[in-house]
Design goal:
With 387 residues, this protein is α+β, with helices and mostly antiparallel strands. The protein contains 12 helices and 10 strands.
Length: 387
């Protein structure tokens, strides 16, 4: 039985259960999209709202990307309409135009672009939305837009409730970002420490051994017994020194710019979403770590897979996952697009050969397939022993 307006205002807007459910949904930091979609669902049920979407601002690029959506009208389901290009609510965010309660009712400039005889059907009759500032200690982190076709205007009580919810969501997002920043700093410090230790101990010791062997060999006659073995030992010392230097170089020239693989993949996904308007749901195990070479290849494969989605898939959603499974580090990128059919020159068109070679070079396996429910799934699996 649907709520009356009075029941919604007096009950649902101040319902402690609603806030408790939202806090519980936000506890899962690894699956931000799923958590935000759950928040939109709770608000739909509790406040009689139907449609919502969340913009988050990427700290690296300062661009907006679509982080979650629920029941978008057909017009906004087109990825091209949901890129990070500025709209009125984003401009209000940047200009600091929100009210004291951090909620404004705005005409949607994106929906306004729907024209022609089918405009009403494309927009579902929607014209405006409530924009809720997702605020945190360091300022706003994004916006949550909420609307409905058939309901009275939001009451003052409901607006205040949404302001509080905006603070909860913003705090959760900011907390997750702070954790990523701390992990990246720790990773960078650890790489620097290891590189310094290799240089100051192992590399110097191997240099000393090589110099000693060279000195002995200069004093030995060509026919002296044992010379061949000393030459072999010198070759091993020089080879070990070269590998130590390569390790130091690799540690100091981090392709992920000091970030964990999970953080780097998240940033890659956010930039992709801001550019294309395709929603990317990211789920990563931030504690997974691998050798620099393995992380570099997995990162490159993710970039190639997302490029394929943009060029060929006509997808609306991508799911990017990084997790451990049966002694392996696994990267999976799935989309809901037109699907993958391996035939003729298609593997080369999609860069499958290159991605396969990249993962094989670090001891892993790569596959690309069209799941039974449609779309495309890319998977790279590298044993942790190799990683």
């Amino acid at each position: 039985m649907p709520y009356t307006v009075a029941e919604r205002v007096a009950g649902s807007a101040l319902d402690e259960g609603m806030f408790a459910a939202i806090v519980e949904a936000l506890a899962d930091e690894a699956r931000v999209t799923a958590a935000l979609e759950r928040v939109l669902e709770i608000l739909d049920r509790s406040l009689g709202l139907e449609t919502g979407w969340v913009w988050l601002r990427d700290l690296q690029t300062e661009s907006f990307y679509l982080a979650a959506a629920r029941n978008l009208p057909p017009f906004l389901q087109r990825p091209v309409e949901m890129t990070g290009d500025p709209c009125w609510c984003m401009e209000s965010f940047l200009d600091g135009d929100f009210t004291a309660n951090d909620v404004d009712i705005l005409t949607c400039s994106r929906l306004r672009d729907a024209r022609g005889d089918e405009a009403g059907a494309l927009t579902g009759g929607l014209r405006s939305h409530a924009s809720v500032l997702l605020r945190a200690g360091r300022g706003g982190v994004g916006l949550m837009n909420l609307t409905a076709r058939h309901r009275p205007a939001l009451s003052e009580v409901e607006l205040r409730s949404l302001s509080t919810i905006g603070a909860l969501v913003g705090l959760a997002i900011d907390r997750a970002r702070l954790a990523e920043e701390a992990a990246a700093l720790a990773r960078s410090d650890e790489r620097t420490r290891i590189a310094r230790e290799i240089h100051d101990t192992l590399a110097q010791d191997l240099t000393g051994i090589a110099l000693q062997l060279e000195s002995v060999l200069r004093r030995m006659a060509p026919q002296d017994a044992g010379r061949e073995r000393l030459e072999g030992a010198l070759a091993l010392a020089r080879d070990g020194l070269d590998r130590a230097r390569q390790s130091v170089l690799g540690l100091r020239s981090d392709p992920l710019a000091g970030r964990s693989l999970g953080a780097a993949l998240s940033s890659l996904a956010h930039a992709f979403g801001a550019r294309t308007g395709i929603l990317v749901a990211v789920s990563v195990d931030s504690e997974l770590a691998a050798a620099t070479s393995v992380e570099a290849e997995l990162f490159a494969v993710a970039g190639e897979a997302l490029t394929n989605v943009e060029r060929h898939a006509s997808a609306r959603r991508v799911d990017l996952q990084l997790h451990g499974d049966a002694g392996a580090i696994v990267l999976q990128i799935g989309d809901d697009g037109r699907g993958y059919t391996p035939s003729g020159a298609v593997p080369e068109r999609y860069g499958v050969v290159g991605m396969t070679e990249r993962i094989a070079s670090v001891g892993g396996r790569f596959r690309i397939a069209g799941p039974p429910d449609g779309g495309t799934l890319v998977e790279a699996r590298v044993p942790l022993s190799a990683a």
